[in-house]
Amino acid sequence: MLRLNEVQLPLDHPDDALHAAILGRLGIAAEEMLGYTIFRRSYDARKKSAVILTYSVDVELKDEGAVLKRLAGDRTVAPTPDTNYRFVAQAPGRLKSRPVVIGTGPCGLFAGLILAQMGFNPIILERGKAVRERTKDTWGLWRKRELQPESNVQFGEGGAGTFSDGKLWTQIKDPKHYGRKVLTEFVKADAPDEIMYVSKPHIGTFRLVKMVEQMRATIEALGGEFRFQQKVEDIAIKSDNGQGQVQAVVLASGETIVTDHVVLAIGHSARDTFQMLYDRGVYIEAKPFSLGFRIEHPQSLIDKCRFGPSAGHPILGAADYKLVHHCESAQARGRAVYSFCMCPGGTVVAATSEPGRVVTNGMSQYSRNERNANSGIVVGITPADYPGHPLAGIGFQRQWESRAFELGGGTYDAPGQLVGDFLAGRPSTALGSVIPSYKPGVHLSDLSTALPDYAIAAIREALPVFDKQIRGFAMADAVLTGVETRTSSPVRIKRHDDSLQSLNTTGLFPAGEGAGYAGGIMSAAIDGIRVAEAVALSMLGKN
Length: 543
Ligand code: FAD
What we know:
By secondary structure, the chain is an alpha/beta fold.
């Protein structure tokens, strides 16, 4: 098989044009090609009147060697790389103890899956409920203002990404092609096939719920065990000269599970668990994260700006954007403002896990056909903004989440303001053409005290700059809601680069977003695979 890259065709090309283009590029007759599959399809919409599709294809030929030899100088043609996943280990017949995975987000699910596939029979513990029950609880906040602190957007089967846009791309380096393994397993769990080849795959909430259930069934069939509503409240660690060794995890029920291998895939919102780990002496340090607001525009505005006359084309779908501005004004100098977790054709969701606090985030369905585009507009902050203690970032998040609850009227409504009013420095009193999607509701207010002054100044500086890239971005009627604080973990639970075990606690494998080693579904899942491999090797005494 050989891979042919950069096959370019117009957006509306006929079905057979790709076949013809491959033959033309390889300089072969039709009978020499046995077949082809699309490895990647992306678009280039820089010239809006002539959007181009770019394909990478894997081609099967009668005489591949001859074609590769003839096109030896062509950098767009090469043998197809082997991206098949290979297990690093296989469990022996009898295990001394079973590995425990804490958390069923993408990281914990993939750690659990890979361990189960290698025969290590993991026990997978989740503080929240199974995904169907969790969905009801999550809607309880959105519809009835009733928050379940252990079952919500952040906690429960599937983790934080379950009620999301399900964007699946990542910019991390992936030399071992673990991303392919993740996509392959997602497709086996009933994700749409196209995620294997579109350049920016997404899944959407409804399908994610089903996929999470399917993955659970697969892991159970392989000997893994899931236990829901089982919060890990303590970890027993034996200490010797400053170096700990995990001995057991202790559940909220009081039950102790003896194990010497624990994957800590707890996500960025397990604040009580971070505190417990700190109290037990596990090495943790503060890390940078971002805070800001969600912004909503009509999706049609973004589509038109991105795709011009091709807006609405089914291959292009709802348009997304990615914006960054580096601030120069005295109050915000050196701060970066950027769009975060952009959800085309989606809704803003209530994403708090703690009572008396308001947090925004975004989600969508696979169709992405809601009226508004939404995105976080967030400002980078560092531990210098919340100095003094490794867990100080959590207190900082809580401070602004409580402030948002207060500004929203104390009912879980999000405080909101029109962009025109925000830029002019006056409170909003009435909505314009953009109807915000956040449920249970939006309480119009003045957001100028909803974040630190430097963050307000930074966002005020950035919005007009973004308007130059997407005309209408700073439209007066666009709506800001807030606050966006759960952008990534406020801590890093540091681990060794090779063994992936905690710096000072052997047998503890900090993983995924909560530990500061991932940001997003894909990178968290990939980290889960890496950590599962490290656990397996350690259990076999090879690491
Ligand atoms: P999590 O998914 O947070 O999972 C951690 C799990 O651990 C949770 O289920 C939690 O209940 C459990 N847990 C925590 N503490 C304990 C304990 N003590 N005992 C037992 N269980 C515990 N990313 C994208 O790439 N694309 C998107 O479109 C996207 N949209 C998002 C939309 C929303 C609304 C949210 C909230 C996030 C979104 N994200 C998105 C981010 C993405 O969800 C996270 O990056 C990802 O889920 C992190 O995976 P994780 O497995 O590391 O942690």
